[in-house]
Amino acid sequence: MTSELDVGMGAGGLATADMVLNIGPQHPATHGVLRLRVVLDGERIVSAEPVIGYMHRGAEKLFEVRDYRQITVLANRHDWLSAFSNELGVVLGVEAMLGMEVPERAVWLRTLLAELNRVLNHLMFLGSYPLELGAITPVFYAFREREELQAVMEEASGGRMHYMFNRVGGLKEDVPAGWLGRVASAVSAVRRRMPDLEALIVGNEILEARTRGVGVLDVATCTAYGVSGPIARASGLDIDLRRDDPYLAYAALFAPGGPGRVVTRSEGDCLARLQVLLEQVHVSLDLADACLDTLAMLPAGPVNQRLPKVLKVPEGERYTATENPLGFNGYYLVSRGEKTPWRLKLRSASFNNVQVLSQVLPGCLVADMVAVLGSMFFVVGDIDK
Amino acid sequence: MSPLPGILKGLATTARTAMRPTHTAEYPDVAPDLPPRSRGVIALLEENCTSCMLCARECPDWCIYIDSHKETVPATTEGGRDRQRNVLDRFAIDFSLCMYCGICIEVCPFDALFWSPQFEYSEVDIRDLIHEKDRLGQWMATVPPPPALDERAAEPGEIAAATKPARGAGLVGGAGTAPGAGATGPGARMPRTVRPRPAGTGTRPPTPREPLTGTPESVPDDTPPAAGPPADGETR
C-alpha cells in the first residue's frame, strides 16, 4: 500500500501523513478570490490559513489622490454588497470634520436607504449560503426579494449596486415623486413573502444537520480577532453601533419603545449566524417602515447643502465607524487641509471576520469547511480592499 | 432525524409559488422597465459643450478624452473685436474604464452630458467601447426627462435661480425683467444652453418610469434635445 492511499483513508490505526490542501482562490464558496491553505489529517482539518490579497486594489492609496466626491465612488466598491453604507462612512466623517449640519430630511432618507441596503446584503447571503450547502432553491426566493428592493434603490439613485447617492452634506438629489409609496409597498411585499424563504431555511432538517454545532465561535475569540457584525452577535457579543454609538437617525430608532433592536444568539455556530441574519432582515424592514413614517411627517426641505467648488477638509483627523451589514466599517481620515485626504485608512468588517477562520476551522471535517466558510458572510473585496 | 418534513415543506412552498404569476421577464423579447435615473450610458449634447474639460478633469479614472482648438470669429460690427471660441474636435468616453459614477454629468456647467437608461451596447472588441462624439450624440435620443421630485422636496436649483429676482432688479430705472419673460430688458441675457424639457413641461404626462424601447436608432424621437422655448432666463 502506498503512502498516498494511507492519507486518503485517514485515521483508524493506519499511519497517516498530513496533507496540505489548497482551497481557492477560485472556489465558489469564497465569494471572490479568497484562498485557504488547509492542513488535513485524514478528513479532519489540523490548521487553516486564509491567504488574502488576490483582489487588492490599493483603495487606500487611491483615496489619497482623489477629492471627496471621487472617494465616494471608490469607497462604495470595496464591499459591493453594502455600497450605500460604505459611502455613508466617508461622508459622515467629512461632514463631522467640516462641522456641517445635514438637513433632517437627508438624515432620514439616508437611514432608510442604509436599512434597505442592509436587507439587500443579508438577502444575498440568505440565498447564497444554502446554495453553498447544496440547497439551490432558496437563492431564487432571495433574489426575487432583492429585485423588489433594487428596483426602488435604482429609481432613486440610478444604480443597482454602486448607488453613488451620498454627497458631502446630504444626498445627490431628492427622491422622485411617489417613491416613498413604492418603497412602502416594496417593503411590505418583501415582508409578506419572507415566509417563503424562511420555510426553506428555518427548521429544515438537512440545513440544521449541516450547521448546528458546526464551526462554533466563542466570545473571547470574537473580541481577540475584532470580529463584529452579525457573526459576533451570533456568538453572544451584544454590540451594535446603531444602538451603542448612534449615527444618522438611529438614536431615535433604537430608543426605548422604538422599532430598533439588536439581534443576538448565544450558540455561535453556523446556524446561529444564519438565524441572526434572518432576524436582522425583519428588524431592518421595521426600521425602514419607521423611517418612511417619519419622512411622511417631516416638513418640506432640501436634502443637501450648497458646497464650495473646491471642498477642503480642515486640518485634523477623525475616525468614523458605522455598523455596516457585515460589521464595523471605519474610516480614519487624516486631513492636512487639502482637497484630498492625507490618509484615509479603511477598516473593513470582512478583513477581521475572515481571520477568525484560522481559529474556527481546525478540528472541523473537510465536509464542514464550506459550511463554516460560507457562514462567515464576507465579501472578498472588503477583505483585500 | 428524518429529512422528510423539511423536504415536504419546501415542496409545498415551491408548489404554492408555481401557482403564482412569474416574476421573471424574458429579456431580449421583453425590454426591462427602467427608471429615468438609471445609469446606462452617457449621452453628449454637442452643441452645449464648450470643451471646458471639467468633466475630463473630475472623472475619477480619467476616461474622457477631449480635443479642441480655438477659432477666431470675426467681429460682426464695424470696429468690433474678434472673438475666440472653442471648437470641439474630439469627445470620447471609454466605457471600458467608466465607473458609471455620474460625476461628469454633475459637474458639467452647461448641461452637455446626460444619463440614458440605454444599456445595450456590449461589444466583442473592448476597443469598440470607446464612444466618440457622434455615437455619444446618438444616445441623446434615448435620454428620458427627469422624474418629478417628491412633494416634500425643496425646489430644484434651476427653478430657485429662475424665480430669484434678476441681478440689479432693485436699482433705479431697474433693468429687472420678469424672470423667464424672454430677453427684452437690457439686463436679461440670452440663455446660452439648450436642454431637454424637464418632466411636466412637456407634452407628455410625467411618467415616473419610462419604458425603455429598443436601440437609439429605433426610438421615436419624442424627447428631443428641445432647442425650443428658452424656458428660463436663468443665470449661471
Tell me about this structure.
The complex is a heterodimer of chains A (385) and B (236). Chain A has 385 residues and is α+β, with helices and mostly antiparallel strands. Chain A contains 17 helices and 8 strands. Chain A has helices spanning 3-9, 59-63, 68-75, 83-98, 104-133, 138-157, 179-201, 205-211, 219-225, 230-234, 241-244, 250-253, 270-297, 349-355, 357-360, 366-374, 380-384, and strands at residues 19-23, 35-41, 44-51, 166-167, 170-171, 316-324, 327-335, 343-347. Chain A has a 3-stranded antiparallel beta sheet. In chain A, a hairpin with a 2-residue loop joins strand 6 and strand 7. Chain B has a domain at 26-142: Alpha-Beta Plaits (2-Layer Sandwich), CATH 3.30.70.3270. Chain B has a 3-stranded antiparallel beta sheet. A two-stranded antiparallel ribbon of chain B has the order 1-4. Chain B is built from 5 helices and 5 strands. By secondary structure, chain B is an alpha+beta fold. Residues 172-194 and 199-236 of chain B have low confidence and may be disordered. The chains are: A alpha+beta (385), B alpha+beta (236). Chain A binds chain B through residues 66, 69-70, 72-74, 77, 105, 137, 141, 144, 147, 151, 154-159, 162, 164, 172-180, 196, 199-200, 203-207, 209, 295, 298-303, and chain B through 1-7, 9-10, 12-14, 16-17, 23, 34-35, 37-39, 58, 60, 99-103, 106, 115, 147-154, 206, 208-209.
